[in-house]
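EI: anyone free to look at a 306-residue chain?
SC: sure, send it
EI:
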Amino acid sequence: MRILVTGASGLLGLNLALEAAKDNLVFGTVNKLAIKTDAFNVVQTDFLVEGALERLLEQTRPDWVIHCAALANLDDCEKRPALAEQLNTLLPAKLAGYVARGGARLVHVSTDAVFDGQRGDYREQDTPNPLSVYARTKLEGERLVAAANPEASIARVNLFGWSPTGSRSLAEFFYYNLRQGKPVMGFTDVYFCPLLVNDLAAIFQAMLQKGLSGLYHTVSRECLSKYDFGVRLAHKFGLDSGLIQPTSVEQAGLDARRSPRLTLRSDRLAQALGEPPPDFNSGLERLYQLQQQGYPQFLQSLRRQT
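SC: here you go
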């Protein structure tokens, strides 16, 4: 298959492109953070330039498109709402329309943050209530993608893993700070269902192979607090969990509001794929094995070689 992965310099996009390139011809777009690799075809693209999206699709002629590119930093979105709307709402809508007309299949990546987190245990049919600019723009992006391309799959995700910058996931935040002996906060009142990015890459390919369409909660079948996430990671890597200070998110002074209980049900995905997504323990074990194999350094070397 010819697969186009947008945002291939990010946490999700780079891991996804590398995983998919083992069995497919992959094109991965990058913008400000350049990547140099022989594993897949790197395409420098600025989606804010007029005509860039059209040229990209003409150049790559994909069978499958996985749209990861976004303005994903919650606090950046609060400061730059117009840019967040361009990248998180208008761009995916435009892409979905082009992909539909060209006959390729699309997975559009969204977020669990479309919910306000007041009750948790959300299913796909539950009504979202986004609290931040990021979440609002991503939710509107979902709706426009579904309208422009009813055959598309829309995946609400929460993920962790190793990234080329070493600073893109909660796992890296805990790992690198604790390894340096630095105390950190761990939110005891924010719950989520994090899925290892490498497992998510395999799930996306399975969704495309099966021709799934519609909305799917693509998260781990196990949910936990961010404090517990940090403690379990510390124990796995032999780090000092006592450095993690149990904290309420209200005390953290963050610009963007966080939803407290983003526990999502993944039953629909499990039924469609014939098996449930991995749990957190298996993802944590694989994260550890990747670290033992030097994978974080490998990803960072792709960035340094430019």
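EI: The chain has a mean pLDDT of 95.
SC: 👍
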